[in-house]
Structure to design on (333 residues):
């Protein structure tokens, strides 16, 4: 048969109306099993492929979900575990649901405007936004437009947008408690960026755990990169040369801190114990292997996709889902 098979040709082959073929293609439950079987057999014999654009006009659905990462391309594709892990988790869950992932980067206000226009044009059935900085206006803007939207991490400020996050405060407290219980008495922290909820909450967890003790807080701030972890560690050694432990708010920063400690002649863990956060693969292969707080990175991505699909399907979902963290003890502490 020349050309692309049409809906009419499928209907003729199956001996049914065009409307019946359309109902089968669009998954209607009102078609009798024997008729559905005849239509599906005709589709297979002719090699018919539904026109997705036309189908979307009928169903008002695109079967696509956007994942927006509020970072530059350089940052996303140089990240060694966290953001790629979230992408992997979202993709796995969408694949299982036969949905398409549309990955978008929002590293500037211009890109925010572009994403708003794209979502307003209903090219996707919903939007997941992760790695937000500051009081990002994008989630609330999409919500006001009536677009199903979900955040990876609690939005800063008041927001009606639901979210999925990990227990950052509780994980930080676990890390500091471990250091206190191991007998460390001058426990510093390298906090994450203070325009991100993960950075804010992990610093709060560190301070909360020290609050009930006689230990004072010693703080430096990084931006979740190796380089910033090394720079912050050098600053801490200048501020308090006698420190004997550091909780670091990400594994990448902890690896940078480890290099800085070794360059300064400090033995880990003999002189300074070190605990990170994330449990990226590189943490296991550091020398010494890094004690850390494990967060379910891929699991968070999967949960984000599950919740967004429910929201896009018209279901009510919980305003917040908080996933647990756990201490993984290795040689560095």
């Amino acid at each position: 048969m020349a050309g692309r098979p049409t809906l009419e040709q499928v209907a003729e082959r199956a001996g049914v109306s065009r409307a019946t073929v359309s109902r089968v293609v669009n998954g209607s439950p009102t078609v009798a099993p024997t008729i559905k079987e005849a239509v599906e057999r005709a589709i297979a014999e002719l090699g018919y492929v539904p026109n997705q654009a036309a189908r979307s006009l009928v169903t008002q659905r695109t079967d696509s979900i956007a994942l927006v990462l509020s970072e530059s391309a350089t940052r996303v594709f140089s990240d060694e575990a966290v953001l790629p892990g979230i992408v992997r988790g979202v993709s796995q869950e969408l694949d299982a649901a036969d949905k398409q992932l549309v990955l978008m980067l929002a590293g500037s206000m211009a890109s925010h405007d572009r994403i708003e226009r794209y979502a307003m044009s209903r090219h996707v059935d919903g939007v997941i936004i992760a790695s937000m900085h500051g009081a990002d206006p994008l989630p609330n803007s999409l919500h006001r437009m009536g677009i199903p939207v979900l955040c990876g991490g609690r939005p800063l400020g008041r927001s009606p947008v639901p979210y999925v996050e990990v227990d950052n405060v509780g994980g930080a407290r676990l890390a500091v408690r471990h250091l206190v219980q191991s007998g460390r008495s001058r426990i510093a922290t390298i906090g994450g960026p203070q325009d991100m909820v993960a950075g804010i909450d992990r610093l709060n967890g560190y301070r909360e755990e020290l609050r009930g003790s006689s230990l004072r807080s010693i703080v430096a701030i990084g931006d979740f990169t190796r380089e910033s972890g090394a720079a912050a560690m050098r600053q801490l050694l200048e501020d308090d040369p006698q420190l004997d432990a550091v909780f670091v708010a990400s594994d990448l920063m902890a690896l940078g801190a480890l290099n800085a400690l070794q360059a300064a002649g400090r033995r880990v863990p003999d002189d300074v114990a070190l605990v990170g956060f994330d449990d990226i693969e590189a943490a296991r292969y550091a020398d010494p292997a890094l004690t850390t707080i494990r967060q379910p990175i891929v699991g968070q991505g999967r949960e984000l996709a599950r919740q967004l699909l429910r929201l896009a399907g018209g279901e009510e979902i919980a305003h917040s889902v908080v996933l647990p963290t756990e201490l993984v003890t290795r040689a560095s502490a």
Summary: The domain at 7-59 is CATH 1.10.260.40 (434 Repressor (Amino-terminal Domain)). Residues 297-312 form the longest helix (16 residues). The chain has a mean pLDDT of 89. The longest strand covers residues 64-69.
